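Run log // design_07
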């Protein structure tokens, strides 16, 4: 029945040519007597209509509705409230047709089969209605419906719609403001839907993965929209902002003494908008609510990683209270692996700039030191942050020694690029913390053991006493007491060990490693004569960068594979000590003459040479 109705409407639309459609539009705009052309023109605003016909109908309807919008009643008003006023009934009817028009435009906007140029015109029309559709004010309901229908549609993340929004409309401050409001609402809706789906989930569900995939797609599109909104410039209150509608949420009352307002750019109106400082404050609040609501969602792993990578740059600086991210970041940091590495940047910003206290931070950081970290994608940033985290001179000696020894042990199992960054980190640790320089040269004597145990006693009273450590050192000389499997740096016994692994790097097969490790031979406790190594110069190294550096390196002396002068003999006397090489005048054959006279095989060797 429904299909037959659609086919009848299609046949009815096919009866009109493009010229006749233009005539219907002109008649509608010229007189109210032709208002019955309105439903007919609306029937052409569908995704299946030819683009030229849909565009012609759209232009006529937009010209008809735009001047009437300030006079139309709200959509919630019904005809029963009209009190038999014909004019009011007419306006209610026109309002209902306007709502149908908006819905038809939204259907075309989210239809991937529609012409891209038509979809762009549809978006521009909707945004014009958003601009003046609420009695001349910003119509947030239409804008929210647009974002809602896109997020919950089957369109992909790379669709043209968010790109058009970002390129043409996200430069306006009020558009950004209402986008944040819609993002918060949509995040809460998706979160509530996810909770209800989990409660209603049963093992007998056939399409159990379908809601999850739909939820993941919606989350992807939410993040894509949020990430495309440009950051708020001028938070110092000195910049002025462009607005899509000057009479929107940022309009202040003229008699409001609590707000410092400025005259709107439109001189024909007396509307005063809030000052840039107050606008920035309101924007920060909405920005914070939108992001915090989004981060409560169950994020797909690719979105999760991308959020963690960019959080400290594009989110934290613009939050009204950055510590609101504490739960999200600590939960991410506790996961371990690459997720913890990505969360480290933002967590470090909160700790150093916003006073976050995280008691187990260094224990978690110590646990991240595994061979796999030297092959991770974001290893460069991790090593720079690791160097920054270990910069404080207030770190206890056992903690600095544990990191130093752990890195030293890892140098035996990592590529040459990893060994270079390890040497740089150890160099900085030994220079910053003179109390752990005993690791460079550890002896089995009582004096050295006493110094170690005194350093340990300063850090924690739970370490074994000096007599026990002296006994272990004397009983097991040459045994490395460091436990590299221990995840707690306090229990790793690093202060009773030495950096013997670094000594092996002096004979590393890669020349840059063996050369760079020589920097540790200097007395790093003399800070005036030494400088720290820039870890960032080595943190992103690889086989390719090492090879490139060696190729560009200028060498004064190089080993040669040929003689500097033409050799007169096949062998030189230095090659065979105790032997001399002579030439026979008669046949120019070389013979060997043993000058030591102690070798009993002269004749055999001489005959062997002559026979050859």
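design_07 sequence
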């Amino acid at each position: 029945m429904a299909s037959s109705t659609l086919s009848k409407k299609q046949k009815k639309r096919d009866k009109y040519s493009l010229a006749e459609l233009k005539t219907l539009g002109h008649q509608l705009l010229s007189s109210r007597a032709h208002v019955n052309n309105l439903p007919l023109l609306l029937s052409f605003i569908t995704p299946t209509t030819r683009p030229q016909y849909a565009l012609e109908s759209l232009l006529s309807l937009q010209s008809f509705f735009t001047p009437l919008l300030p006079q139309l009643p709200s959509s919630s008003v019904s005809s029963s409230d009209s009190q038999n006023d014909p004019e009011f009934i007419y306006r209610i009817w026109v309002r209902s047709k306007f709502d149908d028009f908006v819905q038809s435009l939204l259907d075309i906007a989210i239809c991937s089969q529609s012409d891209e140029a038509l979809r762009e015109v549809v978006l521009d029309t909707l945004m014009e209605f958003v601009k003046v559709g609420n009695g001349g004010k910003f119509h947030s309901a239409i804008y929210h419906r647009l974002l809602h229908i896109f997020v919950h549609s089957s369109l992909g993340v790379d669709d043209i719609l968010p790109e058009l929004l970002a390129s043409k409309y996200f430069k306006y401050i009020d558009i950004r403001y209402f986008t944040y409001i819609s993002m918060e609402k949509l995040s809460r809706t998706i979160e509530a839907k996810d909770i209800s789906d989990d409660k209603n989930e049963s093992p007998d569900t056939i399409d159990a993965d379908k809601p999850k995939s739909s939820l993941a797609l919606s989350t992807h599109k939410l993040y894509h929209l949020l990430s495309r909104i440009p950051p708020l410039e001028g938070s110092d209150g000195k910049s002025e902002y462009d607005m899509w509608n000057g009479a929107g949420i940022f309009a202040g009352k003229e008699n409001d003494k609590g707000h410092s307002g400025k005259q709107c750019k439109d001189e024909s109106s007396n509307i005063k908008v809030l000052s840039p400082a107050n606008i920035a404050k309101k924007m920060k609040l909405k920005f914070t609510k939108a992001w915090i609501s989004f981060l409560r969602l169950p994020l797909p792993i690719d979105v999760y990683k991308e959020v963690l990578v960019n959080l400290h740059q594009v989110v934290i600086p613009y939050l009204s209270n950055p510590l609101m991210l504490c739960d999200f970041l600590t939960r991410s940091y506790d996961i371990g692996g690459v997720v913890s590495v990505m969360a480290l940047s933002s967590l470090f910003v909160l700790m150093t700039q916003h006073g976050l206290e995280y008691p187990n931070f260094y224990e978690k950081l110590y646990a991240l030191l595994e061979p796999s970290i030297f092959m991770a994608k974001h290893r460069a940033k991790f090593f720079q942050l690791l160097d920054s985290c270990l910069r404080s001179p207030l770190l206890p000696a056992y903690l600095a020694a544990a990191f130093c020894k752990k890195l030293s042990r890892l140098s035996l199992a990592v590529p040459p690029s990893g060994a270079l960054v390890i040497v740089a980190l150890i160099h900085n640790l030994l220079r910053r913390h003179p109390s752990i320089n005993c690791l460079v040269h550890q002896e089995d004597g009582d004096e050295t053991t006493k110094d170690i145990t005194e350093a340990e006693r300063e850090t924690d009273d739970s370490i074994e006493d000096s007599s026990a450590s002296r006994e272990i050192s004397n009983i097991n000389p040459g045994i490395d007491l460091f436990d590299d499997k221990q995840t707690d740096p306090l229990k790793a016994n690093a202060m009773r060990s030495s950096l013997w692994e670094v000594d092996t790097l002096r004979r590393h097969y890669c020349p840059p490693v063996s050369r760079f490790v020589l920097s540790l031979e200097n007395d790093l406790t003399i800070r005036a004569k030494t400088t720290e190594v820039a870890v960032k110069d080595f943190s992103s190294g690889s086989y390719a960068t090492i090879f490139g550096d060696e190729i560009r390196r200028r060498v004064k002396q190089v080993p040669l594979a040929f003689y500097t002068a033409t050799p007169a003999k096949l062998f030189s006397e230095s090659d065979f000590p105790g032997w001399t090489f002579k030439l026979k005048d008669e046949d120019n054959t070389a013979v060997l003459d043993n000058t030591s006279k102690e070798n009993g095989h002269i004749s055999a060797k001489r005959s062997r040479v002559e026979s050859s």
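Residues 173-200 form the longest helix (28 residues).
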